[in-house]
Amino acid sequence: MPHNDTASSSAAGVAASDESYDATARILVLGDSAVGKSSLLMRFCENRFDSNFVITIGVDFRVKTINIQDREVRLQIWDTAGQERFRTITPAYYRNAMGVLLIYDMTDPKRMPPIAQMLTTGFVTWMNTRTRLFRSFLVGNKADMAAKRKKGQALADKYGMAFFETSAKSGLNVEQAFRAIAERVCDSYDLLSGIPPRAHNNGSVANSNAVKLSERRGNGGAGGNGGAAASGA
Questions:
Q1: Diameter of the chain measured on Cα atoms
Q2: Quick one: where's region Disordered (predicted)?
Q3: For the chain, first and last CA: distance in Å?
């Protein structure tokens, strides 16, 4: 049974080493204000939804450990505020990010321009190589309420990014999106190399259903450039 744990913390509270996990992946969540970034994170870390969730001020930080290829990978997830006055803070976090989820609101066409602008201005400084593009996913939230989905897919295709349609309210593809970016980061940084798989109490190695990370190279990984998981149930 994969081990999962969730927590809210500050950067100073992250232990340098811990036998409860094998590797650490740092994920940055970006997007305009009120597109549902914090709600997606709440769904992923706590498996719940709160329509009265308070808007993030500055930067929030959460931790969740997931099992990838029978190794325990701790995700450090930075949830950034989308308000204009906080956008000068966000670039400071690009430097340490290993993977990025770009979130937009699928129910509001006006939410697309900020994402498009981010991809062509400040954010492109961070992902100025093919490798960094490989570690950035576009995520459309509120899919349970949306009717038009082509714009998000077209934007993802333009930049060669994986695309997911999610719903923090229903849970649609939330786990899949976060797990896919975590697997992509582990693959890109070779984080699990040399780390032996964890064994069950009886000494046998857990039988993982995950596709080998090496098999994801070159085919777009989970979600792919077209985001196969994005249109799934």
A1: 55
A2: 214-233
A3: 24
Domains recognised in the chain with CATH numbers: 5-231 (3.40.50.300)
Residue (of 28, 24, 98, 99) closest to 68 by Cα position: 24
Contact 34, 54 (CB under 8 A): no
Question: What are the phi and psi torsion angles at 65 (to 5°)?
Answer: -105, 130
User: In terms of C-beta distances under 8 Å and separation of at least 24 residues, what long-range contacts does 199-205 make, across chains too?
Assistant: 205/70
* CA–CA separation, 55 and 83 (whole Å): 9
Q: What is the pLDDT along the chain (233 residues), one digit of tens a residue?
A: 444 444 444 333 343 345 699 999 999 898 888 888 999 999 999 999 998 866 655 578 899 999 999 999 999 999 876 555 445 555 666 777 889 898 988 888 776 766 777 776 556 555 555 456 568 899 999 998 866 677 888 888 888 889 999 999 999 999 999 999 999 999 988 999 999 998 754 433 333 333 333 333 344 444 444 343 343 33
